[in-house]
Amino acid sequence: MGGGAAGIGAAGAAKQASPDARVQVFTEFEDVGYSPCGIPYVHGREIESFSGLILQGKEFYEKAGIDVRYETTVESLDVGAGEVVLAGGERVGYDALIVATGFTYADPGVPGSQLDGLHYVKNIRRAMEWDPILDQAKKAVVVEASPLGLEMTTALAHRGLETHLVDAHPWALSEVADPDIAAPVQASWAEMGVQMHFNTRLEAFLGSTTVTGVRTSEGEIEADVVVVCTHKTPNNALARAASIEIGSTGGIVVDERMATSRAGVFAAGDCIEVPQGSTMLPLQGLSGSHAYSQGKVAGTNAAGGQRAYDPVFVPWGMVAGKWMIGGVSFGETTAGALGIPFHMGVAEGISRARYYPGLHKVRVKLLAEPGSLRLLGAQMVGGEGIKERADFLAMAAKKGITLRDLATMENVYSPPIGALNEPIALAAQNGLARLARGPGS
Amino acid sequence: MSFSEWLRTNSQHYLLEASEREMAKRYLGTAPPLPGGGVGPLFWRRVFVPAYRVVPWAWRRSMMQLMPGSHRRHWSYRPLREGRGTPEP
């Protein structure tokens, strides 16, 4: 159930594990196998057209022996009978079911949510229909500085619209990123003409039939287009109705095989929760790469294979404004919220040799467990190389690498791609030096 | 919404708000979050957050791990034990 990254990953893996298995995918949408994560970049004109986001055509799945049933809504699950019930009443039996129903955007909970013209970035066809409106639009409002909100704010500003970002928190992406990481992004948005409204609550969408603006705690903002980028919440109505166990995040409870609480039912993607690797506390709503990997595990096991998924350390990264930001697991804000004790090392380095054109600053913050100095998390902002550092640091955290290890790490030195001193090593060295100076330094 | 979902949603919100306030003190030029009004938030801000912070992290984590969720199912992966890192040379 579901034709996103998790569903398609699961279908492919099931077919690979058991080539004779009959694999069906039910999706309520017109397409599968495209990258919804690329949609903001088409709106922003960084990518020329939506066709580039289509990874595989319908004939690919036919040839692969995967029966995709498009525009088919599953209305309920009869787990006891081993059947899914489709709209119209057709019942389809299964030996194993994979729930990959993804997410829905959190309801903003304000009047006007039913107005035409509110845009939710999810379905590529709706995005194709909406995109030409941007050619005439002058003014846009983005609701919430979530990861998608950051991407859409940047995209709409890049497209030349007067863009307003409305968020109830004090800085961008505050539930993930620290203020010193968000600050350069916000400064670059200001350069791009973005008007930021932080600490500002959304109170209503305005308009009679079509949205014409928003009312906030700080006043009204007129707009030709409004993009709703609220949090991703797990789409689990069917799973709940089928008495599949749901965890504290609202995600489906799974084990390392992606097996749910009901025999023969697996789940993957944004509809599930998985433990974070150092705390073993559950998280929900990760990235497309997590969803795809989980789908492959679920598909393999559903088809009789053996594959396990590990708890996550969540490397993340994105382009926002004129910067790249990223991190691993915890930053100061999130560790502080949970009350996780940490020791920190911070450094500002450069991405290339100091004399090489196009070099960028790279700020790295490393959070380590007091005593052992094992890496707990990281936050970064810079002009390039953030993704690779986040991937590396996630593996470092998983393997128990310490600040001492990172302080003496080897690094590539090549003027166009790497400086003499790696910013990660500098941050670790600074963390150790701070420790040597004693408390309060 | 189950009790554990309600508890997580609210505790996450108010613990984050308290942390944002501390970050605003730590980083010059950062605005603190605006406190929303009402009686409900008073409990979370004045009772829950201070009480949560009095308890040592290891206990807090143990209590959170008692909540239902995926972490209670089987995972072969075991997190590294706290306090065990590379010995200082």
Provide a descriptive summary of the structure in words.
The complex is a heterodimer of chains A (441) and B (89). With 441 residues, chain A is of the alpha/beta class. Chain A has helices spanning 5-17, 39-43, 58-63, 124-130, 133-136, 147-158, 179-191, 237-241, 288-302, 332-338, 386-398, 403-407, 423-437; strands at 23-26, 66-69, 74-78, 83-86, 91-93, 97-99, 103-105, 118-119, 139-143, 162-166, 195-197, 202-206, 213-216, 219-222, 225-228, 232-234, 252-253, 265-267, 272-275, 282-284, 315-320, 323-329, 343-350, 361-368, 375-382. In chain A, β9 (139-143), α6 and β10 form a beta-alpha-beta unit. In chain A, α1 runs parallel beside α9. Chain A is globular. Chain B has 89 residues and is mostly helical. Chain B contains 3 helices and no strands. Chain B has helices at residues 3-26, 40-54, 57-65. In chain B, α1 packs across α2. The model of chain B has no long low-confidence stretch (mean pLDDT 88).
